[in-house]
Structure formats: C-alpha cells, structure tokens
Amino acid sequence: xxxxxxxxxxxxxxxxxxxxxxxxxxxxxxxxxxxxxxxxxxxxxxxxxxxxxxxxxxxxxxxxxxxxxxxxxxxxxxxxxxxxxxxxxxxxxxxxxxxxxxxxxxxxxxxxxxxxxxxxxxxxxxxxxxxxxxxxxxxxxxxxxxxxxxxxxxxxxxxxxxxxxxxxxxxxxxxxxxxxxxxxxxxxxxxxxxxxxxxxxxxxxxxxxxxxxxxxxxxxxxxxxxxxxxxxxxxxxxxxxxxxxxxxxxxxxxxxxxxxxxxxxxxxxxxxxxxxxxxxxxxxxxxxxxxxxxxxxxxxxxxxxxxxxxxxxxxxxxxxxxxxxxxxxxxxxxxxxxxxxxxxxxxxxxxxxxxxxxxxxxxxxxxxxxxxxxxxxxxxxxxxxxxxxxxxxxxxxxxxxxxxxxxxxxxxxxxxxxxxxxxxxxxxxxxxxxxxxxxxxxxxxxxxxxxxxxxxxxxxxxxxxxxxx
Length: 469
Fold this sequence. Notes:
This protein is mostly helical. It contains 18 helices and no strands.
C-alpha cells in the first residue's frame, strides 16, 4: 500500500505542472525511488536504525548491505522481523524523496536531482529517522511522540524542498502568467492513490492488525476530510467556486498532519487538527511570496507546515489509551495534556525546531555542493524551460497533441466551412507564447544544426495540422 504513494505523487505533481513538463514529474518520482532502494540497501537502513550506534544522532554500519538483518525482532515492534521492518521503512524513505522532487517542477534537471536524492537520504533523512525511531536516538530518549514520520518524512521533505527551490531559483516570470494546473483529473487520481497508500502508511505504523491501526486509519480519514472541507471553503470565499484542486490540497495536508498524530491523538482531536490544518496550510501557501522562494508545488506549505501541526497536536491531544491499543505500548508512553503530561508540549516543540533547522540547512548545503559540481547544475537552461522539461530532459511526452493557446477568446470563430485549399500558416504564428515563435523562426546555426522547432520539427507540425484539418 505504501509503495503506491510514489506513482501517486508522480500523478499529483504531473497534473499540477504544465503539460510540457508533466511526464518529467512522474519520472523524477519514480527515479528517486530507484535511488532510495539502492541507498536503503547499501547503508540507509543501518544509518537510521542500527541499535549498535550509540551517538544518538545517526547509526553505524552494523547492517551495511542488509547484513545482520533477518528474523530478529525489529526496532519498531518485537512482533515484526527486522528484514520485513527494513523493507517497510525503505518505502517511507522512498515516499519522502518523491515528495522532495516536487521542488524540481518545470526547471530542474533530472540527473542532478537523483544525485541529490542519494546524499539527501544519507545526510538528512537517516539522521532525523534515527533521532525519532532508533532506541538510541536523542529525540526517542527525550520522549518525542512521532507516530509515522512528522519529523523525518513531513518536515524533512517540506524543508528540503524549500531549500532545493531556493538553490534552483524562481521560474521565469513570463512562465508564471496565467499559470494553472493543466490536468485536474490527474491531480485527483494522484490524491486517491496517496490516500489509499496513506492508510498503509499510518495504519501500518502500529505494526499489526490491532485496534491502534484501526484508530490510526479513522484519525487519518477524519483529519483529511475536515482539512479538505476547510481548504475548499476558504478558496470558495475568493472565487465562489468549489475547487477540486482545493479539495485535494486540503485532503493531502490533512493526511500529512495525521502522519505524526494518528496513532496518538483522539478522534475529536483529529477533527480539530483537520480544521486547523486546512486553514493554516491554506494561508501558508502565501509564505513563498513573502520569502520569494518559488516552491512551485507548495511542498513546504502542505508537508512542512502540516507536519509541524501534527507534531504539536500530539502534545495537546495525545492520549495513553490510544497508544496502548496496539497491546504492546500499554502504559509506556504517557500522552499529552489530556493525561496531564504538560512536559510533552515543549518536547514536541524542541523536536520541531531541531528537525526544521537541520533539514533545511543540510539540504541547502547538499544542493549548493551539487549545483557547483561541474556537469551537475541543478537548473535547466532558459531555452529548455521554455520548451519544457519533457522535451529537454526526457525526450518523451505525456500527451501527443498540437499545442494551442489557452486564450481561446483571441481566436476568430469559424463562420463558414473550412477552405478546401491548403493552409499556409508560418510556424511562428501558430504558437501562443512569443518566445516559442522566436525560437521557431530563428535562423539555422552556422554549425549546420537545425534549432528546435524548425526544419523537420516544423514540417511535422504542419503535417499534423493538415491531418487534423
């Protein structure tokens, strides 16, 4: 169930991007999971969960290459063998990496992003996972309540995407005019796949078919539903339309907030968390304009901020009876304000601050180091950005179509039957974006190479038009 979240993110990001960069978003999500599969086998699991590493910050290489990882009880539960636990946790890391890839939208090169993924998983995800879930982690010993990954998964992905976006820089201003998601059906499909996978993500984190798993699924749905309603209503007040994109954005932010909280808090607390998350994350999408970082797909607002809220609510609505429903943690964890454990709130805040600062700073360092490495510049060229990442990076396309302008009102309505004779329309007049026209009409280079959009490509466009006529 968790694995299906990776293509779900690909479809979600693909629908949110422009058509000319739609396939590249699916590619980076799937490609990042391939990198994580190797990294987790190589040393990722050992760095995050090795019990013999005593630093409290990161594990050692006791499980390097999945050595010493078979049927012994796992760190997550004595009922789960470690080999199964390591595979399950690999999917968590893979989903987190795919979330970060949203930062590459419409301007990021794919191979440098894959290099970033490997080092990011090693230096960002594994340490924060060790803090929260390793028995020697400093946050684990401090008493942190992080059920399924508010720190390593949500804050880690949100702050890392923000740092990556900062290094990439803003998209060209002319590319932001009249920007809107190109395929809302893909966004909805991606959200559905994510929702399905999230039930395995949160429900499975109780490590058994028990009442705590059922409670986690209930809480996840409650939080998602109320967050979706809150976000949709807030958008309705501006446009007076019931936006499907708003519904999906709210549902995802609710599921994110439920990630650290669904196995700790009460159902009523989940409802309150959903309402607060929908409102706060909706307004958090404006932060990128204040700080002038082009977080293209709002990864920071929907993942980083929502993850912080979920962790914070654990300190308020965490209940020891919910925690003990798995039959393993009965009486071990004390809950939050509901159980008069007032200390828990500042433990949660300290962990939020540490995870936020560390993931942003370390991701920024990694992105800058890769960006200044010869041949690994993170951002594509200006011409590539105009053409689209599908053409420049992938060489394949999500759609086989003849591009038309969005502004249909600028077209002259046809009043008569089409003329029988052949149309003679120059390439530059057939595109709605002036920069594309300039690229098509530019002269052939002196080295004999025909620029993109002229020569055979232009002839092919004319053939397609003739066929459609």
